[in-house]
Structure formats: C-alpha cells, structure tokens
Amino acid sequence: MDKKKMKPYVTAVLLTVLYIAEIFWLSDILGRNLGLAGTVLHEIVLALIGITVFIVMRGKFKVIFPFKKPEFKKLAGTVVLWLGSYIGTMVITMIIAYFFPEEVMGASQDIQGIIMETSVWISIFVVAVTPAICEEIAFRGALLSCFRGIKNRWIGIVIVAAIFGVCHGSIWRLVPTMLLGIAMGYLLFETENMIYPMLFHFINNAVPVIMIALLSSLISFAGADGMMDTAMMMASTEIPPATVGVYIMYGGAAPLLVYVGNYLI
Fold first, then answer.
1. What are 162-179's pLDDT values in tens digits?
2. Among 119, 143, 148, 123, which residue's Cα sits nearest to residue 207?
C-alpha cells in the first residue's frame, strides 16, 4: 500500500471478507465447543486478523492503531457523546420494536443469556471489555484506516459503521448499531486515539449488564410475587404506544448531549 502497488480499498474488501467469515462461521464453532471461552477467543481472533493483515501489508501501526495518553476533558466528552448517541439509538430501537417486538427482543437474547447465567464481572468482561478492545482494533483501527486517504472522512466512517452493523448479524439491530459505529468512527478521527472509541464501546456494552444485574437483584428482593410479575412483564413483547412516546420525549436531549460531547472532545 505504501508503494502504491495495492489500493487501500482492496485491503478493506479483504478484511471485510475475513471478518464476516470469522464472525458467522468460526465464532459459531468456537461458541458451541468452548462456551464463554469461545466467545472471548472469537473476539481475540477478530482483532488478530486486523493486526496480521497490516503486518503482511507493512502498514504503519502508529497511524493504524493510535494510542496516546487520554485527557480528562476528552474522556468526559466521550461519556457525554455516548449518552447522547445511546438515547438517540434507543428511540430508534423502540420505534422498530413497536412494529416488530418479537424480532427486536429476540435479537438480544444471546447477550441476555450470558448476563443471566454468569456473574456480573464475568459478564462485563465477556460482553463489554473484550468487544471494546478487540472490535475497535478490528473495525475502527484496521478497517477504518483503509479509508484515511479519502478527503471526505465521513465516507469511510459510514462504510465501516455499516459493515460493523452487518457483522452483528441482525437486521433489527443494524440501524442502531450502525449509528453507534458512526459515533465511534468520528471519535477516532477527532481524537486520533483508540482509547476514546474503546471507552465509548465499553460503556455502551457494560450498561445493559449492570441494568440487568440490578433488575435481578430487585427481583430477588421482591420475592416470589415480584418474580412472577416481572416474568410476566418480560414475557410480554407488546410495546405500549405511551412507552414509545416517552422515549421520543427523552430523545429530545440527544442533540444537545451530542453537541456538548463534541465540544469537549
């Protein structure tokens, strides 16, 4: 690539094909045979694919995988930007869930199973820590670097975010995941530091783990009657229109939070 013998988009296509093969074929084999260890190993393999391809291509690692000492102001901006992005994607998710409740609820059952069957710390490690590190190295590091030569950075950010969404394997999660991918790609281009999109990714995945853990604690505290009521509520997939309206109302804060987060970073 440095010697102009190979176009960057060729590497992008190669990485995309390898990622899709790993996510939709190898990860299934690892998960069925090794359980949670296989899930963690799948994330590590995903990152190693990105790193290995650029070792072969003799890429500049400081440009592809930039790591610098984080600044407190930018860390705060990352958290605020995540909150704004999260609220915005939740509004979209709730609107989709209103029309397709069973499909949207079913798309997150695997993650919920991991959280319910293991301790909070193991769940955070499997669901939040390893994806935040490995998926950011694979997508925002390796794959996004293939588009750095394009003058309009948003082209690369959106393309990588779309591939990131597709690789999550659910059409019902595609748009929200893609929007979060856009935010993380923007973070990397603005800061030139992988730590910030990794933090964004970690918070986004860790929050559901903590919320479900708190819900489980409340169920245990409520006793048998509370457990029965909660089970009936969770079994119902119907989303009341009023609930969607409340989320849309809260969604009004998203643009302001995104603006403040962008200002801080």
1. 999 999 988 888 999 999
2. 123
